C-alpha cells in the first residue's frame, strides 16, 4: 500500500510446458523472450519486480495425423 492506494510491487509468473524437440536451456530462452515481449509485462513495466519461473515437464507426443 502506498499513499496513492494499493500498488503492485511484484508479479510472479509461472509456466509449465510439454514441448517436443526442445531441451531445458532453449525452453528457458523462449520463455524469457516471451516475458520480455509480452504486452502485459510491458504495460506493467513500472512494477519493481517481475519474475518468471518456467519448467519444461517433458516432450509432447506428436499429434496423430
Unreliable segments (pLDDT under 50, ≥5 consecutive)? Answer: none
Basic shape: elongated
Largest sheet, described in full? 2 strands, parallel
Total of DSSP H or I helical runs spanning 4+ residues: 2
> What is the C-alpha radius of gyration, as a whole number of Å?
16 Å
**Topology as H/E string?**
EHHE
- Secondary structural class: alpha+beta
Q: Total strand count, please?
A: 2
Helix content: 25-40%
Task: Supply the key terms.
65 residues, alpha+beta, two-stranded parallel sheet, 29% helix
Characterise this structure.
The protein has 65 residues and is α+β, with helices and mostly antiparallel strands. It has one domain (10-58). Helices cover 29% and strands 29% of the residues. The protein has two helices and two strands, in the order E-H-H-E. It has a two-stranded parallel ribbon. The longest helix has 14 residues, at 24-37. The protein is elongated and about 55 Å long. The model has no long low-confidence stretch (mean pLDDT 83).
Write the layout of secondary structure elements.
Layout: E1 10-18, H1 24-37, H2 39-43, E2 49-58
Parallel strand pairs: 1-2
Summarize the structure.
With 65 residues, this protein is of the alpha+beta class.
Amino acid at each position: 500500500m502506498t499513499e496513492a492506494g494499493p500498488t503492485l510491487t511484484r508479479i510472479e509468473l509461472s509456466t509449465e510446458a510439454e514441448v517436443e524437440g526442445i531441451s531445458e536451456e532453449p525452453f528457458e530462452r523462449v520463455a524469457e523472450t516471451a516475458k520480455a515481449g509480452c504486452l502485459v509485462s510491458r504495460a506493467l513495466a513500472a512494477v519493481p519486480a517481475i519474475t518468471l519461473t518456467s519448467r519444461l515437464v517433458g516432450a509432447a507426443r506428436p499429434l496423430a495425423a
